[in-house]
């Protein structure tokens, strides 16, 4: 089996808020149906679904790889209209990371590799 792409389905506690959050991060949002949107940035995309399971959402982790972690931190630190939390940039042996919890409890590892 040769893969072409893998996409995650992110559960949304508040569908409209999650769409706005990912759009504020720089994703373009396109409706796929009444209960599903595709969030795209460059060649990368994920699904936002009008479905929520707290246990699943709070255990979901996504690695979001960026080219400039400082630029990402500037964008994240301005997201004051959302029920989110984040930590500052951490240096790891393999690169830098920002831990960002989205509005549904999903954890994004915003990562810049060495």
Précis, in short:
This is Lactoylglutathione lyase. By secondary structure, the protein is of the alpha+beta class.
Structure description:
The chain has helices at residues 15-24, 54-57, 69-77, and strands spanning 9-11, 28-33, 36-41, 44-49, 61-65, 85-86, 90-92, 95-101, 107-113. Strands 5, 6, 7, 8 and 9 form a 5-stranded mixed β-sheet that branches. Strands 1-4-3-2 form a 4-stranded mixed β-sheet, with helices on one face. The chain has a single domain (9-113), classed as 2,3-Dihydroxybiphenyl 1,2-Dioxygenase, domain 1 (Roll). The chain is of the alpha+beta class. A hairpin with a 2-residue loop joins strand 7 and strand 8. It has 3 helices and 9 strands; from the N terminus they run E-H-E-E-E-H-E-H-E-E-E-E. The mean pLDDT is 97. The protein is 20% helix and 39% strand.
């Amino acid at each position: 089996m040769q893969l072409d792409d893998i996409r995650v389905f992110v559960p949304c506690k508040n569908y409209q808020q999650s769409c706005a959050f990912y759009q504020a991060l720089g994703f373009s949002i396109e409706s796929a149906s009444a209960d599903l949107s595709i969030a795209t940035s460059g060649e990368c995309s994920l699904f936002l679904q009008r479905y929520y399971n707290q246990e699943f959402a709070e255990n979901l982790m996504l690695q979001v790889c960026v080219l400039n972690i400082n630029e990402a931190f500037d964008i994240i630190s301005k997201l004051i209209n959302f029920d989110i939390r984040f930590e500052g940039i951490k240096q790891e042996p393999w690169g830098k990371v920002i831990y960002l919890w989205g509005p549904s409890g999903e954890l994004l590892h915003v990562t810049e590799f060495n």
